[in-house]
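User: My instructor asked us to take a sequence, write out its structure as tokens, and then describe one feature of it. I'm not sure where to start. Here is the sequence I was given:
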Amino acid sequence: MRRQILAAGAIWSASILLSRLVGLVREAALGRTLGVGGDADLYQAAFTVPDFLNYLLAGGAMAVVFVPLQAARLARGDERGAWNAVASIGNVVALALLGVGALAWFAMPWLVRVAAPGFGPEQLTELARLSRILLPAQGFHVLGALLSAALLARDRHAIPALAPVIYNLVIVACGLVAGTAEGFAWGVLAGSFLGPFLMPLVACHRLGFAWASRLDPRHPDLRAWILRSLPIMAGFSIVVADDWFLRAQGTLLGPGAAATLAYAKSLLRVPVGVFGVAAGLAAYPLLSRMAAEGRAGELRTTLSSALRSVVLLALCAEAVLVAAGPDAVALVYGRTRLGPAEIEAVADALALCTIGLAAWAAQPLLARGFYALGNTWAPALFGTAVALAAWPCYGVARERFGIVGLAAVSALAISTHAVVLYSTLALRLRRAGAARPAGVVPFAARALVCFGLALACGLLVARALPAAETTLGSALRGGAIAAVCIGTFLGAGIALGLAEIRSTLAPLGRRLRGA
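Assistant: Let's start with the prediction itself. The structure tokens for your sequence are:
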């Protein structure tokens, strides 16, 4: 089972890594073109209202909810019924998108005042215009997620994995050609149509899908999808709300603050996606089968093993990002539009955001543990409770500590959410008959020792090396710091007997010996 998850995880890690790397190219284009200032703040804030529309219709959880419904029909040999379900749900979602989208379009001048309370009248007018450009893109994302879920249920992974890459490439191309925030916004709209929507649509059509115009509100899969998506639609989990809070509070700190936080979070998403999201996607089918067959003990063992590996990788990445943060920021966002002070500000925000990196990486696995048990309510309710409790803390942190305060609260909020999820899921599995896995506390202690040693060595090297003045210098300096951090982390893990590190390095050792 472990090998099965590792193999699937490797596939998803590779695809997500490519997508995240292209995403970093997008962020680099943004940083080098817009810098840290009014235009960058406007562009980042313009996503708030459209992203809320996506969240309201559970677009981000489409695959989690819809894949099992498709898989059940395919297991019965009902291929035609499975495609009819795609069309039925797609038509209802499209009507909902048109209705809610139209309301949001006309109400945009008032909605942006809530999304960006720190902007002046002229900025709010421009923000409303950019948000209207981005609004239809969310419709393509939601419908595209439905089509991608149908492909995933049929073990067709290439198109869903490639679509985000095309999306980001189109954004980069349009943004660089125009050289303005509006150009990037039009790139988002074009990219969302070409990548997340059109590519899965063509792939589904080649497999036999024909989008019928008939509306069937009584379709059983539609009712099941609504019931399972309802908690995700109704809740406002900190997983998504954190970005909303950072954007809104950032606009109150003056020009550049919202962009600084957004740049830091974008760098954080690379290891989160490669480790956490990939592990969640890889383990979810196996966890679902174990839950369906009543194998609570195996489910807990498998989930615990995957969590330990993800946490170790996240802690190693955390040490690298903290020690080599300024070099990573300079390498990605460049030194043309970001001066030394701005690079330092993004690096400081990144260092504090990475305190929650292990929690961000673990959260996809923990949530899918609940989803495998057929429970979509718990993650939504807990995430909403944490978001409501944390919201006042964001305001206090902004007033007292500025950008770094917001970054610290962000890390604390997601860490609280992950702890609550883990504790509740462990309790539920114990009630289902699963024994508590041994060695949780010793593992945590040894993992933290590895992190501390790696971080200390990385900071020492960073202090010893002279500051880089060029992009190439940042790459070399950051690479040296990262190598020291990773080497120290792995060496300490092997010395302390962390089996997860040994099992990960064993295949590489066998290949080297065979060579």
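For the description part of your assignment, you could build on this observation: DSSP finds 19 helices and no strands in the chain. Try explaining in your own words what that tells you about the chain.
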